[in-house]
Amino acid sequence: MKRQIILHPDPRLKKNAAPVADLSDELRVLADDMLQTMYDAPGIGLAAPQVGLLHRLIVLDCVKVDEEKPRPLIMFNPEIVASSDTLNTYEEGCLSIPEQFADVTRPAEVQVRWIDRDGNEQTEGMDGLWATCVQHEIDHLDGKLFIDYLKPLKRQMITRKMVKMKRELAREKA
Fold first, then answer.
1. pLDDT by residue (tens digit) across 119-145?
2. 109 an active-site residue?
3. Is residue 78 in some structural domain?
4. Which member of 38, 42, 86, 103 has the greatest number of CB atoms within 10 A?
5. CB 103 within 8 A of CB 115
């Protein structure tokens, strides 16, 4: 089932998500729904707070080439356990901040640990777009958006555009 993606500004996007204590069928369904929502958007990552639920759950799939097999990842309680000193800058966007993009600098490589859909602990080193995406999504679990890395003026400009967009969407629905 496709879920509704919350748009910035929304106080739920600034809250810390709670750790997942027990994997229930309900949480597995949520993860599957989030993957469907992410692919449909289309996007490469989605965090539970973006669909209004404060669980430490993210989904991602950074395979962008049509000939390549998709690689959906479901991560419960993801955490970065190591990161490189080398930095990378990517132009980031966000499904909660549509049509807005900005360069963000983050560690180029990260080691991530999480619990998979079956309750098994996983660890993987990620680099390139995967490293950027997983850091971006984990930030969502900590109430942080990519625009929080920007200078105040640029952040305020994007927020004003989003307020205007939300007003226009509300008018269209009314």
1. 999 999 999 999 999 999 999 999 999
2. no
3. yes
4. 38
5. no
